């Protein structure tokens, strides 16, 4: 029965951010369907998570509506102009039905009009040259630099939009989707969203978007919302995925050798395996459109399900030795890019970043050792797992 086990997922437990996987594993084994104090149903097993992602009987909840309902609380006694609901109003992953379908087609067309192979390959070389003479290096800074240099080639950023500004914007935008966020943090996001309007230049990206969305009555705020979500979805997940991938590879000499000797097919396998293992987006949410039965239990319409993507990706029912990186794992039906109508629109781009980047980056980074004196630093985020710092020292 839901709620009877003493095993409970608790993101406030010490060391949760360092490693949430032990509590995912215990939850899968002893309490796979949990109810939290807000009435949300948390799911940890692949067999529960995967079908919901794929099902038309569930939809996404609107982030913008959530903010509208919270505005009187967040902005009480504050002179700030509320901008949270506005900035998140056209975020694809929080839209349903026709508007979602049309916006997804338009954004997809614009994104895939760019020659990402060339942009990524150039950014790899640029990134390695930039860090060539460094004696010490933070893998997270290295990854940020790489992704930023791809991003700014297509989305259109003003000179003002430095790497630091993009990092801050992307991280706060990602945090806006998290749970248990403080009022102070929401006010900080709001300020960042207002200032963020100035990040985007008039660009081909925006012009193409306007052309593709001809017939929609979108105003400047709507276009800003689309640019904001593209920046966040592109930057945050790719950076998190690459930084922890590189750290994980450098921690294990056999993986370094595998990458350096791998052919194209083997690089594709390990790319997929690293994305499964890392699962930058650890959770997502779906709402039931009608009454549903799950493992014999009945849930009414409008139940909010929190889906443990990262936990499902380590489920021993599906993956052999799920906590190990098996570079040439053949069957790898992971859910790190989601599934169904909201399947990640940038999955192909994220895969290419790894496929073009891994070998030259590992060849360069093997000249460094992991600095064991400075421990890894993790962000205190629940939905997205973010490595904040991983230092290397030149050999
Ligand atoms: C390793 C990197 C990435 C991971 C792990 C990742 C993961 C995900 C996941 C799990 C979803 C589905 C969320 C849900 O169903 O609730 C998603 C959606 C999305 N992703 Fe990614 N993503 C990555 C990179 C990218 C990139 C490079 C872009 C480029 C713009 C991107 C754009 C999007 C967009 C626009 C959506 C919303 C799709 C929709 O709702 O129809 N992502 N991503």
Written overview of the protein:
- Strand 1 and strand 2 form a beta hairpin.
- The chain is of the alpha+beta class and 395 residues long.
- It has one domain: Cytochrome p450, CATH 1.10.630.10.
- The strands form four sheets. Strands 1-2-8-5-3 form a five-stranded mixed β-sheet.
- Protoporphyrin IX containing FE binds next to helix 5, helix 11 and helix 15.
- InterPro entries: Cyt_P450, Cyt_P450_B, Cyt_P450_CS, Cyt_P450_sf.
Quick overview of this protein structure:
It is built from 15 helices and 12 strands.
Q: Secondary-structure map with pairings?
A:
Layout: H1 21-30, E1 33-35, E2 41-43, H2 46-54, E3 58-59, H3 63-74, H4 84-87, H5 97-111, H6 116-131, E4 136-138, H7 139-154, H8 163-175, H9 183-196, H10 204-212, H11 220-250, H12 253-261, H13 264-278, E5 283-288, E6 292-294, E7 297-299, E8 304-308, H14 309-312, H15 347-365, E9 368-370, E10 377-378, E11 387-389, E12 391-394
Parallel strand pairs: 2-8
Antiparallel strand pairs: 1-2, 3-5, 4-12, 5-8, 6-7, 9-12, 10-11
Helix pairs in contact: 5-10, 6-7, 6-15, 7-11, 8-9, 8-11, 11-15, 13-15
Bound molecules: protoporphyrin IX containing FE.
Residues 92-93, 104, 111, 230, 233-234, 237-238, 241, 275, 280-281, 284, 336-338, 342, 344-346, 349-350 line the site of protoporphyrin IX containing FE.
């Amino acid at each position: 029965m839901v709620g009877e086990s003493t095993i409970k997922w608790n993101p406030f437990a010490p060391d949760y951010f360092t490693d949430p996987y032990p509590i995912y594993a215990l939850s899968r084994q002893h309490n796979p369907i949990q109810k939290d104090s807000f009435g949300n149903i948390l799911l940890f097993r692949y067999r529960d998570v995967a079908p919901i992602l794929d099902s038309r009987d569930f939809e996404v909840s609107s982030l913008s509506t959530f903010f509208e309902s919270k505005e009187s609380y967040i902005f009480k006694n504050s002179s700030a102009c509320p901008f949270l609901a506005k900035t998140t109003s056209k975020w694809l992953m929080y839209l349903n039905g026709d508007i979602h379908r049309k916006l997804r087609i338009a954004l997809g067309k614009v994104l895939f009009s760019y020659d990402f192979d060339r942009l990524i390959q150039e950014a790899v070389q640029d990134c390695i040259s930039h860090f060539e003479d460094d004696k010490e290096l933070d893998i997270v800074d290295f990854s940020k630099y790489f992704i930023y240099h791809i991003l700014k080639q297509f989305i259109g950023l003003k000179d003002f939009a430095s790497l630091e500004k993009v990092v801050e914007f992307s991280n706060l935008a990602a945090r806006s989707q998290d749970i248990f966020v403080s009022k102070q943090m929401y006010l900080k996001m709001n300020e960042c969203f207002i200032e963020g309007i100035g990040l985007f230049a008039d660009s081909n990206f925006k012009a193409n978007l306007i052309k593709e969305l001809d017939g929609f009555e979108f105003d400047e705020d709507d276009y800003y919302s689309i640019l904001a979500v593209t920046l966040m979805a592109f930057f945050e997940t790719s950076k998190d995925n690459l930084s922890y991938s590189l750290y994980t590879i450098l921690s294990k000499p056999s993986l370094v050798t595998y990458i350096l000797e791998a052919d194209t097919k083997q690089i594709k396998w390990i790319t997929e395996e690293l994305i499964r293992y890392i699962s930058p987006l650890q959770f997502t949410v779906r709402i039931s459109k009608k009454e549903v039965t799950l493992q014999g239990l009945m849930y009414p319409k409008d139940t909010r399900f929190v889906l443990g993507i990262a936990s499902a990706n380590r489920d021993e029912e599906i993956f052999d030795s799920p906590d190990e990186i098996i570079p040439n794992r053949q069957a790898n039906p992971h859910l790190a890019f989601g599934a169904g109508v909201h399947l990640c629109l940038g999955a192909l781009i994220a895969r290419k970043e790894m496929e073009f980047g891994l070998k030259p980056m590992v060849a360069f980074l093997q000249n460094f050792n992991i600095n064991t004196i400075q421990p890894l630093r993790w962000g205190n985020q629940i939905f997205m797992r973010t490595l904040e710092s991983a230092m290397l020292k030149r050999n």
